[in-house]
Amino acid sequence: MAASIVQRCLTAAVKVKCRTPSFTARRCLLSAAYTDPKLWEGMEKDPQNLALLANFMDRTFDKKLPVSSLTISRFVDNISSKEEVDQAEYYLYKFRHSPNCWYLRDWTVHSWVRQCMKYGVRDKALHTLQNKVQYGIFPDDFTFNLLIDSYIKDKDFKSACAVVEEVMLQEAFDLPSTQTLSFYAIGGYLATKPSLSMAEERALGAALLIVGLKQSNTLGLSAQLLGHTFIGKVEMQMGVNAVFRGMPLSWVRGYLGRALAVMEGVAAEDSGDAKLSKDALDRLSEVLQDLSSAPASDSSGEESGEEVEGEGEGKQEIAVDEEDEEERAKLPYYVGRFKELRSQLESQGRVEPSSFQALVTVAAARSLAAAEQADLEVYGGRVQAWEDEKKHLVIREKEMREKSELERQERLAARAAVQQAQGRAG
């Protein structure tokens, strides 16, 4: 399956103006070296009996005492079946709601995701990720990449986008590899022409916008345009409060206006060779047309407000105020200004005929290999640091147990001495 995807990606790369013949020698998904668990599995093992560990944690939780991060780490590391993944999910939840909840180790989160992937239950990893407040699952960038890539290789772009949404919520788009994989997931999903709910449009728009801001090239600017377009549609239909609530987005109104600002920036003389993809411009055109042709009642919502889904809070009513109405009144201006700017971009040759998905494919083929190398170097150091920290915790645990045993023996000796003294006195 992976081979067919690579072939399709390379074919698409050739179609994009064929500007770089070397693309045919590249692949556009994470390599086997990147996803190889050999380095991770090469860490020193600490074999445990999960039944005994589970019994110990149950008794500790029942007494309302803290379970150590090392204990939950050992349980996750020793998973050997799907059924044990279910058990680990339960104990991750219990640990998150215990006094030691803040001490879930980064390597435990990484191990949890790897174990879910290893035993064919990625849905468990995604579930705990989407419910991170309840499970404490906040992966690092490398772990995010592994999960996104695994969904992409199975053509499950919707689930890949669900992971990208979590990356967006954590604002973890620092790695070029994560940016590329996120673009690839969203591009692949949009290529299927899905029917998007308002919540999905908001999430995809936020992800496109935030990751797009990391790049100032044609791909990044096209992503910014798409992101502002999706979010601007939500703002026009439901008000700006529905946009930024639960999202790392600005509450300032005018997302469609900022989409036009991206077009203005590209049309400027000092914008270099940057362009905007035709399908991104087409998407903005469709949104403007749909909003313009929608009945007033559809765009303004209920008189009392709108309902949207808030993170972990179910449906919430979002009020539409006068300033939202003022923003909606700008729609005719936005439509006219869009036509002017598009005409200007076309006359300047700044409209990229290649689709957004094709641009992503080319970017992946061009830069992913170099990005992988940098990631693997960092990951190697991270694994070593995790192993050192784990060894330190094991030593400290041993010392604390010895100290606890010594104190217990001293208490028993003192009690025996008191009883002996009492016996003599009697």
From TrEMBL:
Pfam families: MRP-S27. InterPro entries: mS27/PTCD2, Ribosomal_mS27, TPR-like_helical_dom_sf. GO terms for cellular component: mitochondrial inner membrane; mitochondrial small ribosomal subunit. One of its GO terms (molecular function) is tRNA binding. Residues 300-311 have a biased composition (Acidic residues). It is found in: Mitochondrion. Residues 291-326 are annotated as: Disordered. One of its GO terms (biological process) is regulation of translation. Its main location: mitochondrion. It comes from the Eukaryota. Signal peptide: none annotated. This is Mitochondrial ribosomal protein S27. It comes from Gadus morhua (Atlantic cod).
